[in-house]
Amino acid sequence: MSTPSSLGAGFAASCAVILSAAAPVSAAPAVEPGPSIGGKVYQAGWWWKSNDENEVDKTGLIARPEPTPPNVPAGAMTAAAVNGAEEMVAAIEFALEYGPGADVASFDVMLRESSAPDSNVNSDGEGVKVVACPVTDAFWTKAEGGRWSSRPAYDCESAAAAGKRGKDGIWHFDLTSIARLWLAQDSQLPTSIALVEQVEAPMSFQVTWDGPSDKGIGMKLVATGGATPQPPADIPADSGTTGDSGAVDTGDAGTDAFGEVPADAGTMPDDATAPAATEAREVAPSSGLRSPAAATPVTHVGSMLEDIPGGVLFLIPVGLGLAYAVMFALGPNGEPVLSGARHGVGRALDQLRVIKTFFKEAQ
Question: For residues 279-305, b (16+ Cβ closer than 10 Å) or e, as one string?
Answer without folding.
Answer: eeeeeeeeeeeeeeeeeeeeeeeeeee
